[in-house]
Amino acid sequence: MSYQRSRGYVPFLIPGVVAFLAIVVGPFVANIAISFTRWRGVGTPEWIGLENYQRAFDDTAFWASFENNLRLVLAMTIIPTILGLLLAVFLFDNIHRHFGPRTTSFFRAGFYLPQIMPLIVAAIVWRWIYQPNWGILNWTLNSVGLDQFARNWLGNRETALYSIMGMMVWFQLGYPLVIFMAALQRVDPQLNEAAAIDGATWLQRVWHITVPLIRPEIYVVILTTAIHALKVFAPVYAMTRGGPGTATIVASYFSYKNFFERPNVGYGATIATLLTAIIMLLTVAFITVQVRQERRESV
């Protein structure tokens, strides 16, 4: 009987499956095929086997792009996750208790506000903030007598990537905060009260009680933000175009340059394929760790 009922849902799944095959699977398979060719986007692709992959592993710009991606993981995953967790617990334990849910919702919405802004728009606004001649950052430093710290933030190799990282911390912070505040709803307050009576500090309660209880949400935040960091494109495109030199180039923008600016479509497809493979491996690794952790806790 249940099998007969489930068959009734099949026709409604067909449009989604067809769209998935046409929009995701088809282009992905085509991209893999193109990665084995030398092609400029017009004419007939020339089959060259693994030559593009060998070129990628010998390309210093390729490795620089992935190194910058790993640094962006710090700004888009590690720092926002830690700060988001601490802010969520602080808002939940203190602001909510003393000022009520409306005040808590106000602060939560304020931290989440950048998330509803298109990333490309946020990047352009921050490019204006970092502008060396009339940007608000240098203007503020000059106004308070710290003009020795004013500089061309996006035009200096030493500060360009860190400037993008600062913008991404601001942009990403609201996402983990909202997830963690929702997760804190199911944490029994009596556990924290008992720990406080036993002399546990606020940080000890967060580490030993809150973190273990909301671990599934932490895994979700880390996985999704890490994937976002690996495929980030808009801030680099809007703020620096990968410069100066290769100081801020990332894998997605490096692939874009080969696709549309040089053009070297085969090599761009190779970079995109490698990036996809890394993201898939990361996803499998995180899910495996989470499943093993859940099984260990259920025993």
Silhouette: globular
Distance between the termini: 35 Å
CATH architecture identity? Orthogonal Bundle
- The H-level CATH homologous superfamily, spelled out, is MetI-like
- Rg from C-alpha positions? 24 Å
Strand segment count? 2
Backbone structural class: mainly alpha
Mean pLDDT: 91
Weakly predicted, low-confidence segments = none
CATH class: Mainly Alpha
- Counted by DSSP, the helix tally is 15
Give the H and E element order.
Answer: HHEEHHHHHHHHHHHHH
- Please tell me the total number of domains: 1
Structure report:
With 299 residues, this protein is mainly α. The protein has one domain: MetI-like (MetI-like fold). Helices cover 74% and strands 1% of the residues. It contains 15 helices and two strands. The chain has helices at residues 2-7, 10-34, 51-58, 60-99, 101-112, 119-129, 136-143, 160-172, 174-183, 189-197, 202-213, 215-230, 234-239, 251-261, 265-298; strands at 37-38, 46-47. It has a two-stranded antiparallel sheet. Helix 3 (51-58) packs across helix 15 (265-298), helix 12 runs antiparallel to helix 15 and helix 14 (251-261) runs antiparallel to helix 15. The protein is globular. The two termini are 35 Å apart. The model has no long low-confidence stretch (mean pLDDT 91).
